[in-house]
Amino acid sequence: MRNALITGAAARLGRAIARELHRDHRVIIHYRNSATVARQLADELNSIRPDSAAALHSELARAADCEQLAEQAVKQWGGIDVLVNNASAFFPTPVGSASEEQWDQLVGSNLKAPFFLSQALAASLARDNGCIVNMADIHAERPMPQHPLYCAAKAGLVMLTKSLALELAPQVRVNAVAPGAILWPEQETVDDTSKAKILERIPLARTGNAEDIARTVRFLVSDAPYISGQVIAVDGGRNLNI
């Protein structure tokens, strides 16, 4: 059985991805602050299939954090075959008020950590033709107002996806998923009027759900052996009308 590490897997999209991959993988649920829910998810998955899930903590702020998490993950079951870089900070940084700390947090979680985790796990991933799936964003190509640092970090992650696909080939495939309107952000209040305006610009006229993302990740992991270096938008067509 293959082993998957999903960062930021205690809640929201990461939680759905962990559940979906658990169907035929052992999963490591990485968390930063959500220890209780991460362990609850691991217990839930282990009740379905014993010794098939584990929760590991890491800040991921420094390269050393990523290397330590990679080492722990490899030790858990002898290797990692799938890495899903899902952990992500998201908040507005309007020009004129953005701080260096915000830069470090947004670029760190969305770009720095995915690179150093991928680097630390490259040997394990290559051993059995593994893969990496990065969680990008449709706003990596079309900017979101008042979010220049987040958009820049995600744009960097898209190029990192393509670069790693070249650097790690042919043993490791690397792709990305770019969600659109799936879950409303926890850190920001989105009023009904704003939600309606966003929905008006989605050709499918509805938001998606976490399972839409999870199933796409599973497709890239399990059913796409000849796909690498690609970014799949899962957005109901929103990128056509930004």
Automatic annotation (TrEMBL):
Pfam families: adh_short_C2 (PF13561). InterPro entries: NAD(P)-bd_dom_sf, Sc_DH/Rdtase_CS, SDR_fam. The keyword Glycoprotein does not apply. Coiled coil: none annotated. Keywords: Oxidoreductase. The keyword Oxidoreductase applies. GO terms for molecular function: oxidoreductase activity. Belongs to the short-chain dehydrogenases/reductases (SDR) family. This is Pteridine reductase. The lineage of its organism: Bacteria, Pseudomonadati, Pseudomonadota, Gammaproteobacteria, Cellvibrionales.
